[in-house]
Amino acid sequence: MWAGDIECYIKRVDPLSNSYEYIRAQDNIIDIRDVYEIAKCFNAVISDDLFNSACDLNEDGVINMLDVLIVSKNFGKSSADYSSELTR
Ligand SMILES: [Ca+2]
Ligand SMILES: [Ca+2]
Asked: How far is the CA of 9 from the centre of ligand 2 (A)?
C-alpha cells in the first residue's frame, strides 16, 4: 500500500444481521482518518506512551510534520491507483 495508510478503526457492516463493528485495520486508502491517527500522537517520540510506530512513516523515532508530509503526498490515493502510477 502507499506510504501513509495507517491502521485505524474502520466500520465493518454485516449485511445479513444489519449490524456493524469497528475493527482496527488498514483500509487501502489515504484519507483524513490516516491524518487523524498521526494527529493523535503528534510530537510523540519513541520513548513516549503515545508513540505509535505505525504513524512514524519515515522511521526517525518521532511523529512530526515529516510524517504528515508523507501522508499529504499520497493523500486521496487508494490501491486502485497502483496501475495508473505504473503506466506513467
Ligand atoms: Ca487509511
Ligand atoms: Ca517520523
From this structure: 21
Rounded CA separation 31/53 (Å): 18
Cβ proximity of 8 and 24 under 8 Å: yes
Give the H or E element holding residue 25: strand 19-25
State the pLDDT at residue 10: 87
For ligand 1, the distance from its centroid to the CA atom of residue 28, given in whole angstroms, is: 6
Local structure of 7: helix, strand or coil: coil
C-alpha 69 to ligand 1 mean position (Å): 15
Q: State the pLDDT at residue 79.
A: 87
Q: In CATH, which superfamily holds the domain spanning 8-75?
A: Dockerin domain (1.10.1330.10)
62 to 7, 21, 37, 57, 76: CA distances (angstroms):
17, 31, 14, 9, 24
